[in-house]
Amino acid sequence: MKIDLLNEFIKAIQNTKFAEVPIEIEVPKFQDHGDYATPVAYLLAKKMKQNPVGIATELSEYLKNIPFFQKNCEVIAIQGYVNFKLKDDYLWDCAIKDQPFEKKGKKILLEYVSANPTGPLHIGHGRWAVLGSTLSSVLRYVGYDVVSEFYVNDMGNQIKLLQESVDAIRHQKPLPENGYHGAYLNALANQPGSPVDTMKQLQYQTLHKLGVVFDHWFSESHLHHTGQIDRALSLLKAKNLSYEKEGALWFSSTTFGDDKDRVLKKSDGNLTYFAVDVAYHLQKVSRGFDLLINIWGADHHGYVPRVKAAVKALEGKELVILVGQLVNLMKNGEPVRMSKRTGEMITLDDVIDDIGVDATRFYLIQKHHDTHIDFDLDLAIKKTNENPVFYVQYAHARLVHILEKLPEFQDENFTPSWTIPERELLKMGLKLNEECLEISSTFALNRLANFAIEYARTFHYFYETSPILGQSQDIMLKRAALLSFTQKIMKRCFALLGISAPTTM
């Protein structure tokens, strides 16, 4: 709706004096000013050396003669803005059309979670998992070709310590210094084979329970065994982007905006984690992706500039790194770090088992990824409107209950003349595509959760003000049709969020 309006506006003013500045479309502050507005007259005022009020008046008169605007909206000049009030039948045409996005022709590799297979996943991993899986769904929805990937850190000292710790338990020997502890180690020791393989399978099961399925699991060990790390280091050397100093091998990352050069290979000959990261990202680029997106935890913040520098140095591909902040679990208003059942760290499995998949996913995406979350476990299980998950899902259940009483009205013709509550509900549903496009460029996934809450609020208001049974035939028909559209959009939103759409609550 907004997209069509913007495109038609740009088309209408091209090759005119009004096309000399960037075009913006926004929602007016006051409802009686219409559905959308543009401040273009203010941007043109300086160039045209005219008052913006006069420019807006002239532009609105010009648009009134353009067929699209004549047919679909009322154009009004208000205080220097050009405002658009969409006609009722146009709004319904947009709802009926509801065409899928065209394919973008852009391949994206989305890497997220990427936990070491040395222990159970925690709530932080859950946040990256929900962010990544939802972003993957949104990007695919708007037309991108997306591959999701879990990077398995199955090499290095941590893996060695895990194996030694499990072996010590299996042979009833003391745990190694700095070894791993916890009840889960006993479970690993009782399983045959590699504890790393077992841990990977357990992490897979946890993620699957959360509704997170990866297209590809990529092992760090593959980079070592296939010589890809040496290849990456050789490529840097061939580009004169590495040098030796004090017995170590360094990457010239300051050339690409980093605050200092970074060590690739230490003086003792051991590789740094960064060297492996360079090889992994070179491997990503070699697979032909146009955009690389990583979702990392806050503890990886310092790695962002150096990895971006490496990608730029190797191939110049676009790399976006989203850094998710920490999650604090709260109960009775106090932070909770230990499980009462085990006396150890609360795992992601514990949270899912306690409050369910839907609440876990919704609460982990409700705030912007660069904001800390205080996750209220008590609120997450409340069956009241205080709980946003209950609030949005109850809207769907209520919607289904109404539609079940009106099966004979759902496919009939009616006159699309909307009351204010009807119009607001219809407009809100049409905004889902706009939100998804915005998310695909800003990665602000909390917008989707906020949309769900606002959509539920708009529907609940409609329900309280707009009865269906006992009304005229035309009113019953149009409200039944509107609710069918609302359910379709609500289920689509829930599917993108990865939560269920219950029919009863």
Fold blueprint:
Elements: H1 2-13, E1 36-38, H2 40-48, H3 52-63, H4 67-72, E2 73-78, E3 81-86, H5 88-97, E4 107-111, H6 123-141, E5 145-152, H7 157-170, H8 183-189, H9 195-209, E6 216-219, H10 220-225, H11 228-238, E7 242-245, E8 248-251, E9 262-265, H12 273-286, E10 291-297, H13 304-314, E11 318-324, E12 327-331, E13 334-335, H14 348-355, H15 357-365, E14 373-376, H16 388-404, H17 420-430, H18 432-442, H19 446-465, H20 473-497
Parallel strand pairs: 4-5, 4-10, 5-6, 10-11, 12-14
Antiparallel strand pairs: 1-3, 2-3, 7-8, 8-9, 12-13
Helix pairs in contact: 2-3, 5-17, 6-15, 6-18, 7-8, 11-12, 12-13, 14-15, 16-19, 16-20, 17-19, 17-20, 19-20
